[in-house]
Amino acid sequence: MVAAFGQHVVDLRHAIGRSSFHKGGVSALHSCARGHLSGQQPQNSFLLWHQDRRHETLSRRHPRRSRRATRGKNEGGSPPRPRQELRYPFVSVCCLLDNLNTPHLLCYPRSSTFPQHQLAIFKATISTTTEKMSKTGSISLQVLRDNPVEEGETNAQVVDALEAALNVNDDALIPQAAKRLAEQLDSITLARDGAADKESEVENARYNVYTTLLAAVQQVPADHEAHRRFALVLHDLAGLDGHPTWKGLEGFAICNRDAWNDPSLSFEPVKDPEAYEKWCNLNAFVATLLSTGAISWRELPIWELRDGLEESLEELSQENKDTRVVVATLWIKHTGNFIWEQALSGKLEDLDETDSRMLRAGELYHGQPGYSRDRWDFWKKRLGELRSQVSESRSSAVDEAIGAMTELEGKN
């Protein structure tokens, strides 16, 4: 664990176990933080972290002397030496996981308490660390073990197999990982001997695997490298000989349709506090999978770009607005090449009635359905208009999407 005090970043990974942190409480930051908070801090003191609604208090205590050593020193004389306290107001605390799944704690100071140059150091350190850890690091699916999507003895085995595939850390290992995943899933899901309907048994097992898979990728941050490598693993899995259950990812579209639930479109209050983040993560993965050619769902990019860029967002809450726009940027980021190629080659006469309806324009775009250069230009212009309407933390995603579109245009 790492805590930022002043200009220092202090390693506190031994101060607290992961389990206690995830339960929401940090009870103590131990002596490995010595000397970083104050140059006057005694070498043998340690830090305790107390939290309330207004501030955190770092209480510095001297190790308790034995009663024999202190006997008589305070009797009839001066009162005992009071405990020293350093009130250090933090504005927020952020938990991160590094590539070893080690939890990190970053404490942000209030700007009114520290000089601006120190605050800039904090922001730069935290921003760099957050970006690095969100894009790399091992993926844990423990939440799916604790709260299984599908019941049954095989669920944990499926989760283990998916977790291993999500943690492939080298492109050269992707073909091997795909073969291993196919073998593992075959051993888990093959129909039992004597089953009345083996085909139905396989279909049910495949549905359970894909449902768990889609729940798994929702646990992966949207900008994490694992999305790309796992998408390549599935691409290779779909083309493997000798594993017909997974050939062409048959049945995956049905499972994805069941999972395709945009919380920003819900008429009911969203109960899951992580629903928006999971939705972004899911879109990042499916967009990446589309870019590999493993699936050919050409309607999905338009659906999400239409919801985010072609519909009025004025009446939406800030969270819903941010989510719609961010999802649109994710599709541009992860499958921009596909969208650009479709935009250059798309023609109205190539669309039948069904496609025209599925790929129709939103209320703000008055062009034709389907992909076109005109629609591409509208999306880019609209992103520029929405940049000032999204939260500050989301504006970089808009800038990145616009930059990606400009770069693609420059290649032609």
SSE blueprint and pairings:
Layout: E1 2-5, E2 8-11, H1 18-22, E3 28-29, E4 46-51, E5 56-61, H2 67-70, E6 84-87, E7 90-97, E8 103-109, H3 116-135, H4 142-146, H5 155-166, H6 174-189, H7 198-217, H8 226-238, H9 252-259, H10 275-292, H11 299-310, H12 318-345, H13 353-358, H14 373-386, H15 395-410
Antiparallel strand pairs: 1-2, 3-4, 4-5, 5-6, 7-8
DSSP E strands, number: 8
User: Share of helix among residues?
Assistant: 40-55%
The CATH architecture of the largest domain would be Alpha Horseshoe
Can you tell me the residue ranges where pLDDT is under 50 for at least 5 consecutive residues? Answer: 1-133, 191-196
Reading the helices and strands in chain order gives EEHEEEHEEEHHHHHHHHHHHHH
CATH topology (fold) name of the largest domain: Serine Threonine Protein Phosphatase 5, Tetratricopeptide repeat
Q: Which term fits the overall shape?
A: globular
Q: What is the percentage of strand-forming residues? A: 5-15%
Please give the order of strands in the largest beta sheet. Answer: 3-4-5-6
What is the number of helical segments per DSSP (H or I, 4+ residues)?
A: 15
* Top CATH class of the largest domain: Mainly Alpha
Q: Give the assembly state of these chains.
A: single chain
CA-based gyration radius: 27 Å
Largest sheet: 4 strands, antiparallel
Structural class: alpha+beta
